[in-house]
Amino acid sequence: MGILDVVASAKTVTIPEHYKTMSVADMENRVREIKEKFGERLFLPCHHYQKDEVVQFADATGDSLQLAQLAEKNKKAEYIVFCGVHFMAETADILTDDEQVVILPDMRAGCSMADMADIDQTERAWKVMNERFGDTVLPLTYVNSTAAIKAFCGRNGGATVTSSNAKEMIEWAITQKERLLFLPDQHLGRNTAFDLGVPLEQMAVWDPIEERFEYDGDLEDIKVILWKGHCSVHENFTVENIETLRKTNPDMNIIVHPECSHEVVQASDYNGSTKYIIDTITQAPAGSKWAIGTEMNLVKRIIDQHPDKEIVSLNPHMCPCLTMNRIDLPHLLWALESIVNNESLNTIKVDAKTAQEAVLALDRMLQRA
Fold it and tell me: Which region holds residue 181: left if phi is over 0, alpha if psi is between -120 and 50, else beta?
């Protein structure tokens, strides 16, 4: 079930009007009061792409899996208010104890990439692939996917991957089966497999809408099947952005996330996960110049944290991730006050069977991390 299904099937609850008229100072003071009141009973993880108005209250910042793992270890927290998107809160619920409550401040905070692979599409595709290739395909899914897709990979012998360990996981997968199905981001799968020596000619794209392979050669030659999904943020970085920068500022290093297109990754100087980007900039010498191809909230934060370096966004017209930005200070306060008032608001709960199968996929990854 994707975030659109969740929102459609859930009781419609909109944020009360008075949160929209409160002053920033009053909201910030109230958030601090609630955090102090609950202490260790409350854990507030924030993804790197969140707004500064929310990140300022974070108990931890990081990528989606890292934050879910921190929530898992935090046994004292009764409430986990996850400032990210729906699939991240799902993973936190999967990994935490049943008694712990995971809350997403705004249920509209979804992920377009995750929703590009729903479970019905995936099951239909899997049937076609098994009929065509037999038992020769192993599924891997990026953690940026729904709990149902993680569970699908778990029950079919596959695993999850992150952008940090995608190389290790694809190396493992191709020792297990002759072919690999990579969901839901075609770019991370293509870029990683290519780096491992798989030629583009042995990669096909599965179109879940048309229910067909996008491939010109003999299907028997396919080694990697890429789901036709993408990140709407990272796909907006272009080769033209790079060419313009090379002309106007040739001394600038270009570093991008592997969710960018293959052409952009190949034209850049460096590519890697969010952590890789942060670490690379942090370790770079003062005075160095960097153009970063990733989400704008994070780029702005990196710029603020490194005034000794010249840093810009690779795409000067880039907007922040729209779904991540749905979680703002008013929604954060609303979620926290719902806890104070003992209301059941925007809780994320994954059913036991889905959670059990998703854990299989997560554990296969963690065993090799």
Answer: beta
3-class DSSP assignment, residue 297: helix
> Which CA distances in Å does 81 have to 84, 132, 335, 339?
9, 44, 8, 10
- In the chain, the amino acid numbered 27 is M
Domain ranges in the chain are 3-109+323-352, 114-231, 234-313
Query: Residue type at 199?
Result: P
Structural Rg of the chain based on CA atoms: 21
pTM of the complete model beyond 0.85: yes
Q: 291 with 277: CB under 8 angstroms?
A: no
Query: pLDDT tens-digit profile of 237-294?
Result: 999 999 999 999 999 999 999 999 999 999 999 999 999 999 999 999 999 999 999 9
Cβ-Cβ contacts under 8 Å for 349 (sequence gap 6 or more)? 93, 102
Residue 211: CB atoms within 10 Å: 11
**Per-residue b or e along 318-349, where b marks 16 or more CB atoms closer than 10 Å to that residue's CB:** bebbebbbbbbbbbbbbbbbbbeeeeeebbbe
The CATH label, of 3.40.50.970, 3.40.50.10800, 3.40.50.300, 1.10.1740.10, for the domain at 234-313 is 3.40.50.10800
> CATH 3.30.450.180: does it fit domain 3-109+323-352?
no
Query: Under 8 Å CB-to-CB from 58, ≥6 apart: which residues?
Result: 44, 45, 46, 50, 83
Across 78-108, b (16+ Cβ under 10 Å) vs e yields ebbbbbbbbbbbbbbbbbbeeebbbbbbbbb
The reply to whether 114-231 shares the fold of 3-109+323-352 is yes
Place of tokens 């925007």: 346
Q: For the domain 114-231, what is the CATH code?
A: 3.40.50.10800
